[in-house]
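Z., the sequence and structure:
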Amino acid sequence: MDYFASKELVEFFTKHGFKETTKSLYPDHYELMENRGVYDPGSIKRSFRKGRFVIVFDYINIFAYYNSSSPFWRGTKLTFESLKSILFIANLNPTDRVYLKNKSGLVNLDEFLNHNKYFVLETSSTKKKVIHFKESFSNFSI
C-alpha cells in the first residue's frame, strides 16, 4: 500500500509522537487550513517534528529529514515499508537510531534486516543486535 500527503498520513505521524510544526514554519498555510477547515495537499504545506526527525508535506511532495538540512527521503508517496521504517526508527533510543541510520539509510529497514549477506561479515554481538531489531521491527505496528 502506498501513502500520499493526506489526513491519513498525518494521523500516522501524530499517533507515533510527531508534533505538528506547520503553524511556526508555514503560518500562511496553517491559517489557510484553519479557515477552510480541511487539509488539501494540493494547496497547503505541512510539517511535523519528532526529535531530530522532520517530515514536510510540500504540497503533494513528501520530504523526510533526520539531523540535517538535506532530506534522506523524498517523493510523492511512501510505501508501507518505508513508512513503517521511518516510524520504527523515530521511536528508537538515539544509540540504536544512529546505528540503523548508518547501516540501513533509514528507509528500507525491512530489506536491510532480511539481507542474508550482511550476517556473514559481522561479529556475533552485531548479529544479536540485528536479530533483536528484526524481531522488534516485525512486531512494530503502525
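The longest strand covers residues 53-58. The chain has a mean pLDDT of 86.

Let me know what you think.
H.
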